[in-house]
Give the backbone structure.
Amino acid sequence: MTKFLPHFAILFSGMFWYAAGTPLVAQSSPDAYLLSEISKIKAVDNHTHVPKVVRSGDKDEEYDALPCGGYLEPSDDPSMARPDNPLFLEAWQKLYGYRYQDKAPAHVRELLAEKQSVKQREGDSFPSWVLDQLGIEYMLANRVAMGRGLGPRFLWVPFDDALMYPFNTQVIADTPDRKFFYQREAMLLKRYMDESGAATVPGTLEDYIEKVIRPTLERQKKAGAVAAKFEAAYLRSLNFKEPDETEARNVFARYASGGVPSGPEYTILQDFLFRAIAREAGRLGLAVHIHTGAGCGSYFDLPGANPSLLNSVLNDPSLRKTNFVLVHGGAGPYTKVTSFLLSKPNVYTDFSEQDWMLSPRALSAVLRDWLEWYPEKVLFGTDLFPGSPEIDWEGIGYMTSTTGRQALALALTGMVNDGEITRERALVLARMVLRGNALKLYRLND
């Protein structure tokens, strides 16, 4: 999940490693027929931070549990996400009939007036109107809660990291970014506890699971959630080790009435609670989405976001009824790792985030690698999010959707030209990636 706000205020540690381990041997141009057909496919967008419709003067602060833009130290944008990407100008032209080939202030004011006119015309239907313009049938919405305008085509993915942190996080808030993020998690946990009728943290680990974790996930499922999202890589390493239930129970009892756990003590508890939450998600038929690879903020721990660190979780027999989605596919140096992890029966991935960081040609090399391994495990995603008035979520969605479809066409063209697949098979794979795999994973109507 990426977590970006106006003007893409982000920094990715090691930004230009994007194809590490993947030779950039790709087609220079896609097969015209394939690209045309791929552009027509109504997609399922596996990962977004779509905003709700707001009234004048209102704010939407629930598009992410851990927002970055405007809250962390300012940093440079990756080049593909900068306003001079020509796809943003194209988005203005396609979505709003922008008549110009420049961004002159007077012309941009005309654009903003037209955008406002469309929003007023569409009202609460504006988000669905955007889906139609982007060729998207269903969009998964990573949000604290759903909201106005996000109708049945928007599928909820709530955030559940907060459930791993029932106690004071003072010791583990070891960077400025994490200090802010843990404050946000504390606020979300209080919300979940209030909704569960728990005025205080229960006295035992068993009661916490029974009275807070289970009812929270059951409420989310009842409210329409199709998955539970973890942004754990922003808070700790993804190395959730085999838990010791006795030690976890003792740690919980030790701090249930107050105090500050040490780092090692809290890790023991988190390792246990993560699996407990994932197991409950599997029982309810919720997939577990986990951020992997690059993330925002200059303190982001990239090695800690390596999806290979999830190996003990993905090999846990008690979690085989839980489907895991490696969101962003280990964006950056770990896309090759993702290729191998897809061999596990309950593991999927998407290429969200990569389609606004990489060019179509660079992304096509990643996609071809995945498609040559496990094409039935690959999902499309735009990672769109609220932006500036000029380049807001619908413009970001146009850019990432266009990049993703072009990259997919390039990857499949190369496979056809090399005799690996037929053109007919290429279209089958395109439909799988853009919609079929997600329809099956989330049990959606076709």
